[in-house]
Amino acid sequence: MAEILNISNLTITPKNEPNRFLVKDASLSLLAGKTTCIVGESGSGKSLTALSIMGLLSKQLQSTGSVIFKGQDIATLDNKALQKVRGAKIGMIFQEPMTSLNPVLTVGYQIGESLTAHLGLKGSGLKLRVESLLQQVGIPMERANSYPDELSGGQRQRVMIATSIACEPALLIADEPTTALDMTVQAQILHLLDELKTRMNMAMLFITHDFGVVADIADDVIVMFRGEIVETGTKKQILEKPQHPYTKALLACVPDYEGRKQLKPIDYAWLKDSKVAA
Amino acid sequence: MSNTDAGNIILQANHLVKTYIQSSGRFGFGKAQVRALDDVSIALKEGSTLAIVGESGSGKSTLARCLLQLQPVDSGEVLFQGQNLAKLDAQSLRAVRKNLQMVFQDPFASLNPRMHVGEIVGEGLLIHGLGSVAEQKNKVYQMLERVGLKANDALKYPHQFSGGQRQRIGIARALVLEPKIVVCDEPVSALDVSVQAQILLLLKELQVEMNLSYLFISHDLRVVRHIADEMVVMHKGKIVEQGNVVEIYNSPQQPYTQQLLSAIPGRKAA
Fold it and tell me: Lowest-confidence range among A107-111, A247-251, B42-46, B263-267?
């Protein structure tokens, strides 16, 4: 299977504190047609890893390591060269569909923006493409003339998805795209993303803190803890036979559907001692 | 509706109706009526947990606010230990409120950043004039220790704490008055899973220790399954199904409940 993205030894530190590792020595590989979930608690570095792929890290942070996208090291590209990759070859969806859309532009215009910028589409060709994208994400095409405030949260997230897949990217990064949504809407959006990934043979990097979502959508799973990747494996391996003490501890605090499980909060002190052994 | 066979009913709501007038249309010139609560009746048993489940806009938070008399209802009555809360004057209502406390969703927004933790937790004692100053202080210290913080945290400010610790402060504030009923409005949805597990365990322990009755509002059906004894499923202001949690999870009767339960992430794989 074709490798789309390869990150090796990614390290992110604040510029003024080079010894504080926000992400330390992270390496991962994403394949076409596969969904890889990064799981971790807040502050584990999962979002920073995603942002660094897009070159969107805050100016106060610095990163080292290589990010190879289809054979090209994009970590070394300047902003202008990176703009040709962002949105065209790598798409991104954020958590908050309410704040990631511009309230004064119609959704059709916003979906079309990247098509015009990257592919030079205009006029009726653009209109046709926008309408087909809306249909692909399950929104009636008349909605192209609506403003974001006229849509529900789920519909807005669908618009965001249409925007991010407009140029048929090889890689789609989704940073907690369903966290702000109701559960039934979440189920629909997860289904849609999974379907699009398969149809377009995209690699998908899906960031979440919810193991339920992992069970639904992942092929592979990466577990991050305090900036480090502690375990990588297939969904089955991670969910059924976790090896690292942190993964085990994290799974032990997720309430199960049957309600039989005794919840066990993570004992961080113990984890610190056992880390050496793992 | 469950009968009085197990446990006394401590809080009961009969046929609550609440309508809002909402502006509609782009510039809000239009008016539309929204039925936030449409003939809602519930009963909370002493020492048990009743979950109110529903998606955004289903009316679950409105129900909580109406039960606590934070908002007037259009019709219907709320009985606390047999007393109709809407009929009470402001002074007696204040006295009853000591027994009805609330834990909020967002531990970052629900604590006053200018007050130190001791003041936040002790404010209720002060308002209700419970005990001497020394007794109040003692009580605050004890409560902080009970929820897993330190007595000397009383002199710190909320920003010095993590999200989970702040939620512990919120719980201490609610419980220091030794209430009968605690309304928990999505108390763990803003927290990481490991912190969520800590807070759920703490809530369960405190419930047994202090014989608390919880009204637990949540959209997370896995959490509800874990903590609640009974549940009410709300949809568009109406109750679509209510009863024992285990029974509803095992055999949901209404299509909407079935749809909600099948949307729980990870259910297929489990």
Answer: B263-267
CA distances (Å), origin B235, targets A235, B119, B141, B232: 34, 39, 42, 10
Is the confidence at residue B217, as pLDDT, over 90?
yes
pLDDT at A225 > cutoff 80: yes
pLDDT at residue A278, rounded to an integer: 40
Q: Do B225 and A259 touch (CB under 8 A)?
A: yes
- Contact between chains at A184 and B259 (C-beta distance less than 8 A): yes
Question: Domain check: are A225 and A154 in the same one?
Answer: no
Six-digit token string for A156:
């807005």
Kindly report the number of other CB atoms within 10 A of residue A23's CB atom: 26
Report d(CA A148, CA A150) in Å as an integer: 5
* Judgement on whether residues A119 and A162 belong to the same structural domain of the protein: yes
Count interface pairs A-B at CB distance under 8 A: 100
Compute the average pLDDT of residues B137-142.
94
Q: State which of A141, A166, A191 marks the end of a domain.
A: A166
- The one-letter amino acid code at B125 reads L
What is the complex's ipTM, to 2 decimals? 0.78
Rounded Cα–Cα distance for residues A68 and A205 (Å): 15
Q: And the tokens for A90?
A: 């790598």
Cα–Cα distance, A125 to A105 (Å, whole number): 20
A83 vs A86: CA distance, rounded Å? 5
Give the whole-angstrom CA distance, residue B248 versus residue B136: 43
The number of beta carbons lying within 10 Å of the beta carbon of residue B160 is 12
Cβ distance of B264 and A255 shorter than 8 Å: no
Q: Is B246 on the interface with A (CB under 8 A)?
A: yes
CATH of the domain at A204: 3.40.50.300
